[in-house]
Design goal:
The complex is a heterodimer.
Chain A: E1 3-4, E2 7-8, H1 9-20, H2 25-32, H3 36-56, H4 59-69, H5 85-88, H6 95-110, H7 115-121, H8 126-143, H9 151-172
Antiparallel strand pairs in A: 1-2
Helix pairs in contact in A: 1-4, 4-8, 6-7, 6-9
Chain B: H1 2-37, H2 42-79, H3 83-120, E1 128-129, E2 136-137, E3 147-150, E4 157-160, H4 164-181, H5 183-192, H6 197-218, H7 226-237
Helix pairs in contact in B: 1-2, 1-3, 2-3, 3-4, 4-6, 5-6, 6-7
Classes of the chains: A mainly alpha, B mainly alpha.
Chain lengths: ~190, ~240
């Protein structure tokens, strides 16, 4: 198994996921038994290497995403403080709530508002959002299975929920939007 | 009626094009000024950039399509069979703006990065001292990560951990600066997209060679992976 400074791909991805879910860097260094300069070098080299691996095989991007969302690989297996999707579902208990948060941070970002601070207002950090995203993307893929007989109905419901929350937050941030061409008409 | 409608449509498109250019110019200045306003929070300024892009898109580019669909097309369709050519004008104007805006983002990200770099690089222009003998340490100034620094006097190995604003330089900032310095090659690469595959591949190679040569000037420790980095990017692009 390929390693950089003793850190495998799985541990690298899990380390990134744990950091994103709030693990202090000191804890991470203790778990990996590395000093900060070595960890920085490891991270830098793995970031480059991940680019190489993804060029060769896009499955690495999926694998990285899964480990990032569920960072319990290698030495992090018994040492993570990261939560599972099941443990986080109280933050977004259903698909509609997930869509609400999704559109809130998305429309906010279009208006120059920090999407991370929007997530924080729901008690979610970027790492937890990654876990919830993975969970609901999988849910969405199952929901929108075009081979199922009720696909059309479910697709319509899905579109309605999306439109509802996008419109809601576009309205919410409307006063922060400047019309750059209000005086130009046909 | 036909001439009058076409004249009005042309005038509308011209005014929108002029406003678009003016907005991009003001937008770039707003992005650069935002660094002082947010105490050099690079990522907050990037968000400002994306918000400006989104507003230009919504209130200028999309307005062209909306105006065509809701006002111009119904009038022209009712008047004759010349609407298709006029529809093309609108689509062409919107497409040109999309391309121009992508280039604007590319350049503005580079200029933002340049300005941030000018500020953050100063953070290391001070003395650092050995934790054992208090002698001055020679910290590598173009290495934006934690580093071991051996004291020249007592040989103790110190761990130097730069502050976050300085570390940020080693990530997107140097990348955007390198891209800016390879702007000419980038433009040639875009033009070559419509040429034959070999010419395009050569243009892509030239771009990444320039990009990584500029990046190496900013991050000398990446010189040993130059060839590998170039090949990877070419593979990802083509």
């Amino acid at each position: 198994m390929e390693k950089i400074n003793g850190v495998s791909f799985e541990e690298y991805a899990a380390a990134c996921g744990n950091l994103a879910q709030g693990m202090p860097e000191e804890t991470l260094l203790q778990i990996l038994g590395l000093e900060k300069p070595v960890w920085d070098e490891t991270l830098d080299k793995w970031n480059v290497r991940l680019g190489d691996l993804m060029t060769e095989d896009m499955n690495y991007a999926t694998k990285y995403g899964e480990l990032f969302a569920n960072p319990k690989a290698g030495r992090f297996a018994g040492n993570t403080t990261a939560a599972t999707a099941e443990e986080l579902l109280h933050l977004a208990p259903d698909f509609e709530t997930y869509q609400k948060i999704f559109w809130h941070q998305s429309v906010a970002a279009e208006h120059g508002v920090d999407p991370v601070s929007v997530l924080e207002s729901y008690g979610i950090d970027i790492g937890k959002w990654g876990v919830l995203n993975m969970h609901y993307i999988s849910y969405q893929n199952n929901l929108l299975d075009h081979t199922k007989p009720d696909y059309a109905e479910k697709y319509e419901r899905f579109t309605q929920v999306q439109d509802k929350w996008r419109s809601h937050f576009e309205g919410h941030y409307a006063d922060q939007k400047s019309d750059l061409s209000g005086d130009i008409n046909f | 009626m036909k001439d009058e409608l076409i004249t009005r449509w042309d005038a509308f498109l011209q005014k929108m094009a002029a406003r678009f250019e003016a907005s991009l110019l003001q937008g770039e200045q707003a992005v650069l000024d935002s660094l002082e306003e947010n105490n050099y929070d690079y990522y907050a300024s990037l968000r400002t950039l994306m918000a400006i892009r989104s507003q230009v898109d919504a209130s200028l580019i999309r307005k062209i399509n909306d105006t065509w669909q809701q006002q111009v097309e119904p009038l022209m369709r009712a008047d004759g069979d010349y609407w298709a050519d006029e529809s093309f004008k609108g689509h062409q104007a919107a497409d040109d703006m999309h391309e121009r805006m992508s280039l604007w983002q590319y350049i503005t990200e580079g200029r933002l990065a340049e300005k941030y770099y000018g500020h953050a690089i100063q953070l290391i222009n001070r003395d650092f001292f050995c934790t054992q003998c208090n002698a001055p340490l020679q910290v590598k100034k173009d290495f934006f990560m934690a580093q071991y620094v051996a004291c020249h006097y007592c040989a103790a190995v110190n761990t130097f951990e730069p502050e976050t604003k300085y570390v940020t330089l080693g990530w997107n900032v140097v990348d955007s600066m390198s891209a800016l310095y390879a702007l000419q090659e980038y433009g040639e690469m875009l033009k070559a997209r419509s040429l034959n595959p070999l010419a395009y591949e050569q243009a892509v190679r030239k771009y990444y060679e320039k990009y990584f040569d500029e990046r190496i000037k900013l991050l000398p420790h990446t010189a040993h992976t130059r060839e590998q980095d170039i090949e990877r990017k070419i593979k990802q692009t083509i």
